[in-house]
Write a structure and sequence with these properties.
The protein is of the alpha+beta class and about 400 residues long. Among the domains are: about 25-40 and about 280-390, no CATH class; about 80-235, Sandwich (Immunoglobulin-like). The chain has 11 helices and 16 strands. The protein has helices at about 5-10, 45-65, 170-175, 250-255, 255-265, 265-275, 295-300, 305-310, 345-365, 365-390, 395-405, and strands spanning about 20-25, 30-35, 80-90, 100-105, 105-110, 115-120, 125-135, 145-150, 160-170, 180-190, 190-200, 225-235, 280-285, 285-295, 330-340, 340-345. The chain has a 6-stranded antiparallel sheet, with no helix packed on it. Strand 4 (about 100-105) and strand 5 (about 105-110) form a beta hairpin. The protein starts with a helix and ends with a helix.
Length: about 400
């Protein structure tokens, strides 16, 4: 890493727009990589399950203190209390009838349409003065709270028009309460905030919090602002959440598309941000060797016998993984991927570099590609067979009886 430019930057002598943090790798080798996406004994995919555990631990660390929280009995929040007060500076539409909708995972609550009043300067403001109670237990803590403004004054037969939205990662109410779009905010502690929150438009324009290196830049709202008070707290009177629905692995990955949209925000703004960061990367030689990828549960949606692969996860000594270094059922093995050199690339160019190089290598690796495609279609076939069995539950019995007669 070349730190001379960083020192120049800290001294305030760098040229405007010049990179001040340069990462240069002469040789980068990643070896013996295992990527596993599997269903647990409860039927939950490991990635969503890990997100829930990480969210709980992050909240415990914030509430109980670093290094000490494992030894403390910590009560985590399980309910959201939201007071929607008023909205202003909304889109100038004729006969506007704004309504607020609050979404958290599978919970969706709504207010009535706001009552129009006028501020001293003559501009309109819409009063709601509505309190909402949203259950937010362990199955919600890694989720995203989304508050949307709809215009209900539309042509009969058409859905209400989305004219503004605000969102915040739920655990941030405790961890980083001011990390959200706002024009003014008061952090009361204990997961409670209040203030005026800036709305993005339906395409997430203006959703970015940070405009570059340095302090947060909340910018301006594209679709007005909303006065609210939010408290993420605990209530002993709240019943525990029901067990999650029994859905397949692929459905679990895409269970909450609205959250995914909020996390990415406006793609043009995100790419512009990555491109403008004053960071550069150079890689002379980069290779990935001995990569095992297990994704059978994504397509089968049921457990398969993969004890040999799971055994490779038991230790940290790569020499003990040798028996897993082959393409077998449920696993794709890539022997080596060599990347092209990279010179003075921005963070956006680095992301595109990895994406294009991995895709190119995968397309030209016939063995790995064939194994992966075979696994996908085998899994899809098994999944279809399971579905047909559900449609005709007696088919298997009839087949068994026929086999016995033969």
């Amino acid at each position: 890493m070349d730190v001379s430019a960083l020192i120049t930057k800290l001294k305030g002598k760098n040229k405007p727009g010049s990179p001040w943090l340069i990462f240069k790798f002469h040789s980068l080798v990643c070896s013996d990589i295992v990527f596993n996406m599997m269903l647990g004994t409860t039927g939950e995919l490991n990635l969503p399950a890990m997100q829930k555990v990480m969210a709980d631990n992050e909240l415990k660390e914030t509430l109980g203190g670093p290094y000490l929280f494992p030894y403390k009995r910590i009560t985590l929040p399980n309910v959201l209390r939201i007071h929607v007060v008023a909205a202003r500076k909304l889109q100038d539409l004729p006969n506007l009838q704004p309504r607020i909708e609050v979404t958290l995972r599978r919970v969706k609550l709504s207010t009535a349409c706001g009552k129009k009043v006028h501020l001293p300067d003559g501009s309109p403001e819409y009063m709601f003065d509505t309190q909402l109670l949203v259950p937010a237990d362990w199955d919600m803590r890694d989720g995203v709270l989304v508050v949307r403004v709809y215009n209900d004054n539309v042509v009969p037969g058409r859905s209400p028009a989305l004219i503004g939205q605000w969102f915040m990662t739920l655990k941030y109410l405790v961890m980083f309460p001011d990390y959200c779009k706002h024009s003014k905010i008061t952090c009361h502690g204990g997961g409670a905030i209040s203030g005026s929150f800036l709305l993005t438009d339906a395409k997430f324009r203006g959703s970015a919090i940070r405009g570059g290196i340095g302090p947060n830049s909340v910018g301006a709202g594209f679709s007005g602002e909303l006065d609210m008070a939010i408290h993420y707290t605990h209530s002993a009177a709240l019943d525990p959440p029901p067990p999650p629905p029994n859905i397949g692995a692929l459905d679990q990955l895409g269970a909450f598309p609205l959250e995914d949209d909020c996390k990415f925000g406006n793609m043009t703004e995100m790419k512009d941000f990555l491109q403008k960061l004053p960071v550069r990367f150079s890689i002379d030689f980069f290779v990935i060797r001995h990569a095992a990828i297990e994704m059978s549960d994504l397509f089968v949606g049921a457990h398969k016998h993969k004890m040999p692969f799971q055994a490779t996860m038991m230790g940290t000594d790569p020499s003990k993984w040798a028996f897993a270094k082959q393409a077998t059922e449920g696993r794709t093995y890539v022997d080596s991927i060599t990347f092209a050199p990279l010179e003075n690339a921005t963070l956006l160019e680095l992301v595109d570099y990895f994406k294009s190089q991995l895709l190119r290598s995968a397309l030209f690796d016939a063995k790995a590609l064939g194994t992966a495609l075979g696994e996908i279609f085998t899994g899809l076939g098994a999944n279809m067979g399971n579905q047909m069995g559900k449609i005709n539950p007696f088919g298997q019995k009839r087949q068994s009886a026929h086999s016995q007669q033969l």
